[in-house]
Design goal:
Layout lengths: L2 E5 L2 E3 L5 E8 L8 E6 L5 E7 L6 E3 L7 E6 L4 E6 L8 E7 L2 E2 L3 E5 L2
Parallel strand pairs: 2-11
Antiparallel strand pairs: 1-3, 3-8, 4-5, 4-9, 5-6, 7-8, 9-10, 9-11
Length: 112
């Protein structure tokens, strides 16, 4: 079975940083393009970042560009999201995803 488990969320003050990880199993991670998506309270899902299977292709939504960095370790089957300069509007549940699969999310709360 496909397993996607995001972790690393928590409560952080505005301007702070967090690093999310997503542990994966049940599919060939190194052959799979991956995304990070988030859902803020009361809002639709938003795709915030994409990384190609070999890490060469990367893009970001305008809402996080310049503040977030996506990366992956194909040897560890793990996806990462480094989040800097966090804002209250970044408060959301964050998920890693591919195709129709979206795993267990992790809650990020940005508040003073």
């Amino acid at each position: 079975d496909v397993q996607l488990q995001a972790f690393g969320g928590g409560l952080v003050e505005p301007g702070g940083s967090l690093r999310l990880s997503c542990a994966t199993s049940g599919f060939t991670f190194s052959s799979t393009d991956m995304t990070w998506v988030r859902q803020a309270p009361g809002k639709d899902f938003e795709v915030i970042s994409f990384i190609g299977r070999d890490g060469a292709r990367i893009n970001y939504s305008n809402s996080v560009k310049g503040r977030f960095t996506i990366s992956r370790d194909n040897a560890r089957n793990t996806l990462y999201l480094q989040m800097n300069s966090l804002k209250p509007e970044d408060t959301a549940v964050y998920y890693c995803a591919f195709s129709k699969f979206r795993g267990q999310g992790t809650l990020v709360t940005v508040s003073s």
